[in-house]
Amino acid sequence: MSYNAEAPPSYDSVVNQNTPPPSYPSLQILSTTQIQPYSIPQPIPAPCVVETIPTQRRQALSYKSKRCCYGGSSGTVVVVMLVVIAIWLGVRYGPSLWALSERETGTDTCPPSSVDCDGKRDCSQGSDESHCVRFGTANELQVMTSKSRLFFPVCAQGWNKNIADQTCQQLGFRQSHIYSVLQTNSPSFQSVNSQFTNTIQGSVNLSTSCPGQQTVSLSCSKCGKPPVSTRIIGGNAAVDGQWPWQASLYFKGYHTCGGTLLTQDFIITAAHCFPKENPSYQLPSNWKVYIGLVSQLQLPSPYFVKQIILHEKYDPVTKNNDIALLKLNKQASNIQPICLPVFGQTFSPAQQCYTTGFGVTRQGADSSSTSLMEVKVDLIDSSVCNSLTVYNGQITENMQCAGDLMGGKDSCQGDSGGPLVCKADDQWFLTGVTSWGDGCGKKNRPGVYSNVGQLLMWIYGKMQQERP
C-alpha cells in the first residue's frame, strides 16, 4: 500500500520482508493512463480505445406543446405525479439489471419453459431462481416472484426462526443471525404461505395488505463489528482483531492477492488474480487461504479452496467485473465476516473508509509488507474519476475510485482482491474489491476498486448456486 508524507516511515524500512508477488508489466490503455492490476503477471491484452460520446442536450417543450400533449397544466401535474411514483417504485422495488439481462446464459442450460422466481429450479445451475431475493434499507427482506415481477417486502405475519434459517441457507449462509420487524409504507407485500417450501420466493403470495404494515428485517450473519476498535491514522500497521475478515491468498507458497471473508464458506477477491491464460492459476489445489492474520510471519492454519468462481463477464483489458468468489473446503468458524451492503446503499466521501492489504508500501519496492497495512481513503465520485485529468472515461458503473487525488494514499501490488470497507451505523461494509490503478499513490491516479454494490446480485446469485 502507498501512503502520504504525513504517514510513518515506509514499512519496508523497519520490518522484515518476504518475497513479493511477481511484478506486473504496465498495460498502456490511453496515452496518459496505464491500467495496472495490483498483483500477478498476466499476458498483455490488446490496446483498448475509449471513445467519447457527444453530449445530447434536452429541449424543453413550449407552453403550447405542453397543452397539446397533456391537456393543460392540471394534466401535467397528474402525469408528473404518476411518473414520480412509477420511478420510485421502479428504483426501490424494481428487478435488477442483472436479473433481466445478465444471467449467464452461456454457462447455464435452461429449457424454453423455464420460469424465473417461481420457486422451482428449471435451469441446470439454478440461475432462474438465484436473483429473487435481496435486502433493502435496514436489512428489509425483499422478494420477487414469477407473479409479482417486482421486489416487495415480506410481511412479518407468520414469520419465524425456521423460515429465517431456510431463507439465509438459500442465500449461501449457514443459518440466520437475527430478524426483527420494520414499519413500511410499501403498497404491496409478499405474505408467507401456510406451508413453506425450499425457497422463499416459492413460499409467498403477493398481497396488498399486511397487519400493521410490519415487514421482516433479516440478518444472515454477525458481521462488520470487529472486537477491536481503534482510531487509525493512515499508514499504520493493523492491530490484531481490527480487520478479522482480511484474507491472504497464497499461490504455490507465496502471498499473491488479498481477499475478504463474506460468509463461513466464501471469500471474495479479484478475478484478475486467476488469469485464464495460465491454467495453473485456475487450479484450486494451488491455492491456500489464511484468514484473520496481521503478519505474514505468523500464519494461522490455512483453508483450502474447493472452487474458484470467476465473473463470466470479467474483461481482462478494461478490468470491468473484476470480481471472484472462492468456496472453501470447510467453513471458517469463529471468524467474523464483513457485511455486504444492502440494495441501494450508498457511501459518501465523508464516511470513514479504509483499504487494507499486504502489498508493497511504495511503488517499485522489491518486497511486500510482512504486516497487514491499512490506510484511510476517500471515496471519489465517478464523474471526477472519469474526468480528462484522471482516468478519462475508463471507470464503469462496476468500478469505484478511492484514495487521494493529491497522491500518497493508495493500494498497490499485492493488495489485489483485498477489501475497501466503509463504516455506517457502527458496522463495516464491503464497498469495493481492490482491482487496478496507474502506478501507486500517484497524483490524479487513485486506486480503482470493483463496486460491490453494483455486483450484489452476481455475488448472491453465485452463493446461492454453490451454497454448502
TrEMBL record:
SMART domains: Tryp_SPc (SM00020). GO terms for cellular component: membrane. Keywords: Disulfide bond, Glycoprotein, Hydrolase, Membrane, Protease, Serine protease, Transmembrane, Transmembrane helix. Pfam families: SRCR_2, Trypsin. SUPFAM superfamilies: LDL receptor-like module, SRCR-like, Trypsin-like serine proteases. One of its GO terms (biological process) is proteolysis. The chain crosses the membrane at residues 68-91. InterPro entries: LDL_receptor-like_sf (IPR036055), LDrepeatLR_classA_rpt (IPR002172), Peptidase_S1_PA (IPR009003), Peptidase_S1_PA_chymotrypsin (IPR043504), Peptidase_S1A (IPR001314), SRCR (IPR001190), SRCR-like_dom_sf (IPR036772), Trypsin_dom (IPR001254). Residues 232-464 form the Peptidase S1 domain. GO terms for molecular function: serine-type endopeptidase activity. This is Peptidase S1 domain-containing protein. It comes from Culter alburnus. The lineage of its organism: Eukaryota, Metazoa, Chordata, Craniata, Vertebrata.
